[in-house]
Write a structure and sequence with these properties.
Layout (H helix, E strand, L loop, with lengths): L1 H8 L25 H13 L8 H11 L4 H13 L3 H12 L6 H16 L12 H16 L4 H9 L9 H13 L8
Helix pairs in contact: 2-3, 2-4, 3-4, 4-5, 5-6, 6-7, 7-8, 8-9
């Protein structure tokens, strides 16, 4: 794996630039990453590079071999399931990821998104009526994500969406959607 990584880095596939720091700039501290964090971050980079997504799982699994409860690596594998539309597997994966990393707002948002998608799977639902249990669980995780990071557009938006399918007490959902709109006023997918 190390040799393959070194060979890939030598290809200069990613653009970079050097930044000059002035003496009056805020101090910069560098801390070495653990092996598992390095593997996770490489996997995350590959996951976000469309032509290299398939290689991400190898890095996430290598991180988990070193640290079996690495929330980021577990979340990365779950994100691969979500990208493939395997929503039930994504839910299970994000639940495993959130367990060791309960203070990670991104993992909570991803879990809430997966629960939402697993509930609806592209089906059109009527508004009103009883709120499905998975939707209530999605709401709970979105609310926790927003509590951890109030400026999360995705968290606020998803929290608001979870209220769209009930007929009573929708005010918290409207408030969350308004906060999402305030965070990203130019988003075309918000009314």
């Amino acid at each position: 794996l190390q040799k393959r990584l070194e060979g890939y880095v030598r290809q200069n596939a990613f653009a970079f630039r050097n930044e000059v720091f002035q003496s009056g700039d805020a101090p910069v501290a560098f801390q070495p990453l653990s092996r598992e964090d390095t593997l996770f971050r490489l996997g995350d980079l590959l996951l976000r590079t469309s032509e290299l997504k398939a290689d991400a799982a190898e890095h996430f699994n290598a991180a988990l071999a070193v640290a079996p409860k690495h929330g980021g690596a577990l979340g990365g594998l779950a994100l691969l399931d979500a990208d493939a539309g395997r929503w039930d597997q994504a839910v299970a994966g994000f639940q495993r990821a959130v367990a060791p990393s309960p203070q990670d707002p991104e993992l909570r948002v991803r879990l809430a998104q997966s629960l939402y998608q697993a509930e609806f799977r592209g089906e059109r639902r009527r508004m009103g009526g009883e709120t499905p249990p998975r939707l209530l669980l999605a709401r709970e995780h979105a609310a926790k994500a927003v509590a951890l990071r109030p400026d999360s557009f995705d968290g606020q938006f998803l929290l608001g969406l979870t209220y769209a399918f009930q007929s009573k007490d929708v005010e918290p959902g409207i408030a969350a959607l308004e906060r999402a709109h305030a965070l990203a006023p130019g988003r075309a997918d918000l009314p």
